[in-house]
Amino acid sequence: MEDCLFCKIARKEIPAEIVYEDDNIIAIKDIDPQAPIHVLIIPKEHYESILTVSAGNNIISEIHIIANRLAVKFGIVDSGFRLVNNCGENGGQTVDHLHYHLLGGRSLSWPPG
C-alpha cells in the first residue's frame, strides 16, 4: 500500500531503529515507548488487521516466533512480557497495518487500558 506508514518503514522510505528483519517481518523500536522494551513487530506485506489474514497464512505464527526470539534477545523472558495486537478503532489500532507490540522491562498492570 503506497501511503501506509508501516509499508513505508518496511520499504525503508522512512527511517526506524530496526531490531530484527527477515524476508517477511521487520521489528522496530517504538518511537513512543510505553515500557523500557517496546518493539513493534510488523509483517512486510500489508494486512489491514488480523481480520484480513486468510486461513492458512502463517504470518501470525511467524510473528509469534519472532516475538519469542526478541524476548530472549532483550532479556525479558524470565521477568515476563506482553505481546499485544490492537484490532479496530475501539481496540486501539491507530495504524491500519497488522502489527504487534512486544512490551517488557517493567511490571505491566492489568487491565491495560
SSE arrangement:
Blueprint: H1 5-10, E1 18-21, E2 25-29, E3 37-43, H2 59-73, E4 81-84, E5 100-104
Antiparallel strand pairs: 1-2, 2-3, 3-5, 4-5
| Structural class based on helices, strands and sheet pairing | alpha+beta
Query: Which radius of gyration do the C-alpha atoms yield?
Result: 14 Å
Major sheet, described briefly?
5 strands, antiparallel
Total number of β-strand segments?
5
Taken as a percent bin, the fraction of beta residues is 15-25%
Q: Would you identify the CATH architecture?
A: 2-Layer Sandwich
Oligomer: single chain
The tally of structural domains comes to 1
Shape: globular
Elements, N to C (H/E): HEEEHEE
Strand order of the largest sheet: 1-2-3-5-4
Helix content: 10-25%
CATH class: Alpha Beta
In round numbers, the mean pLDDT is 96
Intertermini distance: 30 Å
CATH topology: HIT family, subunit A
Number of helices: 2
CATH superfamily annotation: HIT-like
Overall description:
- With 113 residues, this protein is α+β, with helices and mostly antiparallel strands.
- It has one domain: 2-Layer Sandwich (HIT family, subunit A).
- Helix content is 19%, strand content 22%.
- It has helices spanning 5-10, 59-73; strands at 18-21, 25-29, 37-43, 81-84, 100-104.
- A 5-stranded antiparallel beta sheet has the order 1-2-3-5-4, covered by helices on one side.
- Strand 1 and strand 2 form a beta hairpin.
- The chain is globular and about 40 Å long.
- It starts with a helix and ends in a 9-residue tail after the last strand.
- The mean pLDDT is 96.
